[in-house]
Amino acid sequence: MSEAREKSAGRRGGRDARHAARKDPTTVHAPYIQRRIPLTEILDDAALEMIEANADTVLEEIGIEFREDEEALKLWHDAGADVQGERVHFPKGLCRTLLQTAPSQFVQHARNPARNVTIGGSNTVFAPVYGPPFVRDLEGGRRYGTIADFRNFVKLAYALPSLHHSGGTVCEPVDLPVNKRHLDMVHAHIRYSDKPFMGSVTAPDRAADSVAMCEILFGRDFVDQNTVLINLINANSPLVFDSTMLGALKVYARANQATVISPFILAGAMSPVTVVGTLTQILAEALAGMAFTQLCRPGAPVVFGTFASSISMQSGAPTFGTPEPTMVLFGAAQLARRLNLPFRSGGSLCASKLPDAQAAFESMQTLLPTVFGGVNFTLHAAGWLEGGLVSSYEKLIMDADQLAMMEILAGGVDTSENGQALSAIREVGPGGHYLGCAHTQANFESAFYRSPIADNNSYEQWDAEGGMDLPQRANKRWKKLLAEYQAPDLDPGKAEALDAFVAGKKAAVPDAFV
Amino acid sequence: MSEAREKSAGRRGGRDARHAARKDPTTVHAPYIQRRIPLTEILDDAALEMIEANADTVLEEIGIEFREDEEALKLWHDAGADVQGERVHFPKGLCRTLLQTAPSQFVQHARNPARNVTIGGSNTVFAPVYGPPFVRDLEGGRRYGTIADFRNFVKLAYALPSLHHSGGTVCEPVDLPVNKRHLDMVHAHIRYSDKPFMGSVTAPDRAADSVAMCEILFGRDFVDQNTVLINLINANSPLVFDSTMLGALKVYARANQATVISPFILAGAMSPVTVVGTLTQILAEALAGMAFTQLCRPGAPVVFGTFASSISMQSGAPTFGTPEPTMVLFGAAQLARRLNLPFRSGGSLCASKLPDAQAAFESMQTLLPTVFGGVNFTLHAAGWLEGGLVSSYEKLIMDADQLAMMEILAGGVDTSENGQALSAIREVGPGGHYLGCAHTQANFESAFYRSPIADNNSYEQWDAEGGMDLPQRANKRWKKLLAEYQAPDLDPGKAEALDAFVAGKKAAVPDAFV
């Protein structure tokens, strides 16, 4: 069935919701995926326990460096760690003990409460690509991203029901000053979408600005008591957290906002070339970083993150969609569940320069394991191209179509009497045809996923319509979505206050472009 | 790592095998995948038992038609079924009882014993696309298939180590007479490959010719006691077996050759629009067809087959790569395992007219579930395009690359001391780099899958090399493989006898083109 399916009941149920979905498919939708199929788990308990023991050894004997952050080192010392210079050695069990205050799942609030997402448990939240300096579309080709592109991607993510989240740096707006662009990015997420979003992590004061803008939007007390931002804190693998990331981490954790502690791994360069070795390092880094959030504010929501790919052993270039990182994803998800913490990984990752078959093969090699493996928060779920260097308009549309299918797959099988359809088998009988039978007619609208961009027509019809490939059809669709885009209402007082905040911050310091 | 990886030890082990693989990657390979990761199973026992009970109800109350085959009806009557006209009603448990003589797994012998495949258990065998009347390549576009194309596809499947099987009708050679082309097809599989292959099912005498050619190749007694052919018997869903398929079935089962009993389902047309309803019908059809093989010859190898997709509820056109058929695949695999019988389904299916991103998305939506769901025999694993109307040269190459990755993924995680890589983590330490470390150097060749066609280079390098998409690179590769193709040795006496058999058969009757 169509995209209307992914916009299922919301807070209305049954016939009403289906009727509403038919009438206006953009108004009713599921805010995130609730998985009802079993997990795929590729490691047995013995392997998981071995990895945990090895990670404990790494944490104790090798340690993790917390660089250029005296406060972090003092916090670790006071918590009982053995701090030698910038190297922190963790007594066995310390990180796990600290993590007992971290929630197993949490709600990230959106300014539209119907868009709130629950991160953790059996839920999966899809967010768009994060971080590319370039954008690409069919006509414009590859070029540096601008704030206009950024706003377009926010608008498109808002318009695509299979994206549950507005994301963060959907592309880098390189036309804006480095020290101020975070203001326009956060502002765009607030202004052009009502889905949950991410804050800036490139400097502590930019993180603080992100929190301050949320305080204007949600109220100061609400922000202190609730999670309204989720923020990506990458480890500087192997075994290092740098002062930039630590600075942002501290701001967010102390503001009770969520952090995703993500070892960023290209295996073979930043971790060993093996799956188990990579998982060991990921677990050690994630444990140390996540535990640190609880030193900053016990109870602050934190997500076990993993970005893992591998490199070409010929060229050193990152590769995507290969089997070894898929195994890392499955294994890391299992390790996170054993910690009873939410897990971030996966997406629609690829190395391809074009939204071609390579891009699709590689993306699906990551996306299906994302769903089968039980990832809770998925950055880069749509729009990622060229190893994350490019945000692609067409790929955003193509990926969103796949994401919509993931919701159905994760929803599991209907075993109700209607699902069993014995009446249909009886009615049709041997040699008959099901198209016209009563059961088919009754289930016509909800029976099958209906892609807005896949072509299933006859060769002759497809040829007569121009013989387009998938990116060409996706191109038409994003233009249509942008043309039809309508901004969600925003309280005028809050809008004004946000404008004033951004203007004030911009006026306070000169532009910087490095 | 490279394709050399999929050509692992063979009968030589360790260092020797690796050395051989480096020197000549076409000589050593794994003949099929042995899965060492857990299965993904989406249905619980209660759902499976309900489907089994419903299928029993269908078999008993509605029944299955065995059309225009008096012998089949008599066999069923004698076995205790209630035969009314062509409609056979099965007392509860009859089919399952009959199936107790069917083997849970079996070896299909190839003329090169190193290529023998075991079908069933935790094994997966990949065979190329089956049945398309058209072929497509980048320069020639879409056109009717010829025997020259057929031979090319056999040669390419022989050259691609991730294809374990030569398949059957890799494309329809429409330039040959309908009543004789099976001779040239079987001959091509024997002559141009030494992998296992499939026999003709389009008429009983063509099935008999296929067996006769195998008797020349393997010896009459060997064929009677061993499986050398696997053959695709489609149900005429819903709930019908026709005389053509029954005729071929009887020939093969009585010759102790394997049959794949495959309900061929486009859900919404040939089965109910629901997953459970479709599974119920599939199980009923498969049980009846498989049990019939045991009436023909108890102990004859038989495979539970499922080809299931769905249709567009707008146009009636078949769709591929959507979530509902994926759920059918997972469920049918579970049902087959509960019967302790081998299972056939899946592949790299797509509706796309081009080897573009749609083709790749759709193919992976089927292929990954094929592996995670535990399919034992996979037709259409490579080369399928346009809903099975087209055998694509480029897609064959693209799919084979994905199949090679499936072998690694299915192989599971290395938990050995080398796999744990603690020494590497110690050696490199915080902030270091793994590329030069001893562990990386020692595992350099086998660390990561190396695609022969994916591009992971920098944008600049890719652009300088022509900015090719994946089909363009695949085009170069199939031409290279064909140019380098060398036929496997065939005993001259057998070759001569086969030539004589084919010539004699061709001379015996006039050509027919319908």
Automatic annotation (TrEMBL), chains A, B:
Top-level EC class as recorded in UniProt: transferase
EC number annotated for this UniProt entry: 2.1.1.-
Pfam families named in the record: MTTB
InterPro entries, per database record: MttB-like_sf (IPR038601), MTTB_MeTrfase (IPR010426)
Domain of life: Bacteria
Gene Ontology MF term list: methyltransferase activity
Stretch list, region Disordered: 1-29
Keyword terms, alphabetized: Methyltransferase, Transferase
Compositionally biased region (Basic and acidic residues): 1-26
GO biological process: methanogenesis; methylation
Family: Belongs to the trimethylamine methyltransferase family.
Protein name according to UniProt: Methyltransferase
Taxonomic source organism: Oceanibacterium hippocampi
